[in-house]
Amino acid sequence: MPVLEQEGTQIWRRRTTGQSLVRWFGWLLGVAVFVYCWQIISASTTWFFVWDAPRIANDIWTRATPPKWDYITQLGRPIWDTLNIATLGTIIALFLAVPVAFLAARNTTPSAVFIRPVALLIIVSTRSINSLIWALLLIAIIGPGVFAGVIAIAIRSIGFCAKLLYEAIEEIDHTQVEAITATGASRWQIMAYGIVPQILPAFAGIAVFRWDINIRESTVLGLVGAGGIGLQLSASLNVLAWPQVSLILIVILIAVMISEWVSAKVRGAII
Amino acid sequence: MLRLQELTKTYKTGDQALKAINLDVPKGQVLALIGPSGAGKSTMIRCINRLVEPTSGAVMLDDTDLTKLGSGGLRKARREMGMIFQEYALVERLTVMENVLSGRLGYVGFWRSFLRRYPQSDVDEAFRLLDRVGLLHMADKRADELSGGQRQRVGICRALIQNPKLLLVDEPTASLDPKTSRQIMRLITELCQERGLAAIINIHDVALAQMFVPRVVGLRFGEIVYDGLPTGLTPDKLTEIYGEEDWEATIEKVDEDEEIEAAE
């Protein structure tokens, strides 16, 4: 009740005195916790390593420059693999995500009590595990190589794509669906005419966005043996070949920049 | 042709939107359904083609009770009833032609419709209808490029290409300016006459209803409180339907409007 009666005039305040006091106390508590945490972190840090860090970083920098340019001849194939892992993984993920999204959306699910929770479980479980961990699991199951990487990226992307897509499905204009229903259309026709045209822009946006993310994710998959340029990175790091490492990082940077440019162009064209 | 018998709709919240409605619409008759917001006008026409499931009662279209039909039978019955919407309800990202042809979805199979391979007779009819409403040159435009009045014309074509016996029209003019509203109402009533169609038109604008239809039904709190000629809508009757208000202006406006129409 922020309106107070005082000498006949009504005074309006944003908060009552009680609410302001509670907020002030909340801030006090926050600051106290921050100071306490700072103390603990500081006590358990080996400060020698921290003071030493600039020197070490400088050391690595001098070893890594200039990059070993002629190593590029060995990177063409791995970066191509990386792009393929990302692209194939995204395509497979989209194929699997579409039915999951339709089962998860409140307005299209056949059963909100039984099927929707299963679809949501698929979305949450695939999303919650990092692709690196999926890759480790899959390498144990199907052996190391590019295929394991593709599957890891695909599984990891299902949840992301399905979640964004089912939210798009839930936000469609219902009267367009009603109008198609009123013509006597069948269930599949209603989907093809009433729903699909409405979610198509969202679908295309999600696809390129996830492809862009997957290129970045697939560059590190090689670290655990799932193919692509990460394999070279891991090998170079193991033998402390810093000039090679720096060249690989440059190649990854360029690949990511190109993918971001492409996805920005595509999304701009759709919207 | 269409007969509602004791049609009742009670929503889950307990609101009774329709209280045992009885209504008889003969072949080829156009009637306007008026009443305040929340009177159950929209619910009533949606109960007829079962976009909203009625709670009890019967909807007889010729000799079939629509409330008893299974999903296949309902699809066939829906083909007989074209529907026109307030916000046009066109599929915005499809072309005008695709929107018109979507009225044939009840007649063609899934793959034909998915691949847009409609029978030539349907395409011919679509062109004829677009020509009739003056939008032939727009056939290839996307629906969201059209103005309100143009969209509603496409909506009318979509309903008519179903070759229906009955039009269910939900607030066709509520999103349109006064001039376009009249043009659309005139178009709907003319087309109904040409094709001998019956129509139920939900409408807010009493004056507009009086101008174009031979029969007015007034709905209040889910009950029919008026059923008769548009000229019978006296201030007392309007008060009964809508509640207390000064109605003289509304009724006078009708006369003026008619003069303007006659002068045009």
UniProtKB/TrEMBL annotation, chain A:
**Top-level taxon in the UniProt lineage:** Bacteria
SUPFAM superfamilies named in the record: MetI-like
Report the locations given in the UniProt record.
Cell membrane
UniProt keywords (A-Z) are: Cell membrane, Membrane, Transmembrane, Transmembrane helix, Transport
Give the way it sits in the membrane. Multi-pass membrane protein
Q: Extract the InterPro entries matched here.
A: MetI-like, MetI-like_sf, PhnE/PtxC
**Record keywords: Ligase included?**
no
- One term under GO cellular component: plasma membrane
Record bears the keyword Lipoprotein:
no
Mark the transmembrane ranges. 21-41, 85-105, 132-155, 190-209, 247-264
Naturally occurring in which organism (per UniProt): Ruegeria conchae
Q: What is its main location?
A: membrane
* Pfam families per the UniProt record, alphabetical: BPD_transp_1
Q: What is this protein called?
A: Phosphonate transport system permease protein
Instruction: Return one GO MF term.
Output: ABC-type phosphonate transporter activity
TrEMBL record, chain B:
Give start and end of each ABC transporter domain.
2-246
Superkingdom of origin = Bacteria
Q: Which GO terms describe its molecular function?
A: ABC-type phosphonate transporter activity; ATP binding; ATP hydrolysis activity
Q: Which Gene Ontology cellular component annotation is one that this UniProt entry carries?
A: membrane
In this entry, which stretches build a coiled coil? none
Read off the Pfam families from this record. ABC_tran (PF00005)
Gene3D superfamilies with a match to the protein in the record: P-loop containing nucleotide triphosphate hydrolases
Entry's CDD domains?
A: ABC_PhnC_transporter (cd03256)
State the name under which the record lists this protein. Phosphonate transport system ATP-binding protein
Please tell me the species this chain comes from. Answer: Ruegeria conchae
